[in-house]
Design brief:
The N terminus is likely disordered. The strands form six sheets. Strands 1, 3, 12, 13, 14, 15, 16, 17, 18, 19 and 20 form an eleven-stranded mixed β-sheet that branches. Strands 26-25-22-21-27 form a five-stranded antiparallel β-sheet, with no helix packed on it. The protein has a four-stranded antiparallel β-sheet with strand order 5-10-9-6, with no helix packed on it. It is mainly beta and about 375 residues long. Strand 25 and strand 26 form a beta hairpin.
């Protein structure tokens, strides 16, 4: 997997987040406008019809369809349980009996007089939608959806696996650029969202999951560890439905990239608070990014540690996302208005940036991301 980054992801210390929780089929809304909710509160419930299972009784018993229909012990609308006698055929003057027992629990939906087949609808599947974030219900659509508003910190990741989870933020000891090995993972991480370090080893991922962590937030990850954690090579452009015990969110990219200092500092200031996280990622049209939401009543409505709307400006912190300075953090010192020649021979709009070691470099504007 090549190294990759996406520019201008949001890192907001205070904002208003609205989440609409929508049922896939009509159901019941369990809250009202103005209700205060926590992430684990069930706000809506519905039932999906169970699968329809066709029971081919004549073929199984080796009898004619009319004989199967004649021997049925249940009719349309009747409930049956696995093991119940569903059909009995008596042949050769009562000397031979063939019996068919229901293989599943369900309700007889139809009986085909022509084929002798019986359709049994399995039990419905219950669907429960939880609030996911801590906040206030601001809108409801009867039988369909609930909108929850939360005020607090909001952080975008660049990539993630695993779905919605929530837990208490806990910082892992070490600097943002520390390689995350198993020794760094606390053993008492049950229900926590661990934050810190970069490029976790496979052993660290498995140990965090075994410790019961709800999530792990790191700067970057490599393909070997990710594949080992999932158990397969991820080739899809949509994530979030993986059957993994812990959600993993990467904030910077693939390869060896430290957790951004401002992201790390913001999360450190939120240590001990409850966070809602979702690793769902979609890189195609209608892009979806992983998210970290921490409700806090003391948050403002627009403070930002990384705000894409601010754009490039002199003094802005950026990261270079192309060689020969891939991954290097820098500060913008000049934004020339006219296009200039670049190494490829083309002309492009560029910026002048100062690296951490003091060197000045000229970089195409398309080759940086805001920090």
């Amino acid at each position: 997997m090549t190294q990759a980054l996406t520019p201008a992801l949001q890192v907001l210390a205070g904002t208003v987040v609205r989440k609409t929780r929508e049922l896939p089929v009509p159901g019941r809304i369990l809250c009202e406008r103005g209700d205060a909710v926590t992430p684990d509160v069930v706000v809506a419930r519905a039932e999906l019809p169970g699968d329809l299972q066709i029971l081919r009784i004549p073929e199984t018993l080796g009898i004619e369809p009319f004989e199967a229909v004649k021997g049925l012990k249940a009719d349309e609308g009747d409930a049956v349980a696995a093991g119940d006698l569903l059909c009995e055929h008596v042949g050769l003057f009562g000397l031979f009996r063939s019996r068919y027992q229901a293989p599943v629990d369900g309700t007889v939906e139809f009986v085909s007089r022509r084929t002798g087949h019986v359709g049994v609808r399995l039990e419905p599947h219950a669907i429960e939608l939880r609030a996911y974030v801590q906040g206030t219900v601001v809108d409801t659509d009867p039988g369909k959806s609930v909108t929850v508003e939360s005020r607090g910190a909001f952080i975008h990741g660049i990539f993630g696996v695993g779905g919605e989870r929530y837990g208490t933020i806990r910082m892992i000891e070490g600097a943002p650029n520390t390689l995350l090995g198993p020794a760094k993972i606390p053993s008492d991480a049950e229900g926590q969202v661990l934050v810190g370090g970069t490029r976790p080893t496979l052993e660290a991922l498995l140990q965090a999951a075994d410790a019961g962590a709800a999530g792990l937030i790191v700067g970057s990850i490599d393909d070997y560890a990710l594949t080992g954690y999932l158990g397969y090579d991820l080739g899809m452009a949509v994530t979030g439905h993986e059957e993994v015990p812990m959600t993993v969110i990467v904030t910077e990219g693939f390869g060896w990239l430290p957790l951004a200092e401002r992201t790390h500092s913001l999360l450190r200031s939120l240590e001990g608070r409850a966070a809602s996280i979702n690793g769902a990622t979609q890189v195609r049209a209608g892009a979806v990014r992983p998210e970290i939401i921490v409700a806090r009543e003391d948050a403002g409505s627009g403070s930002a540690d990384r705000d894409p709307a601010a754009g490039l400006r002199v003094g802005a912190a950026v990261r270079i996302v192309r060689d020969p300075h891939f991954g290097a953090a820098a500060e913008v010192v000049a934004l020339p208005a006219e296009p200039r020649p670049i190494a490829t021979g083309a002309r492009a709009r560029v910026l002048e940036a100062r690296l951490a070691n003091g060197d000045l470099v000229i970089v195409p504007r398309a080759n940086v991301e805001l920090l």
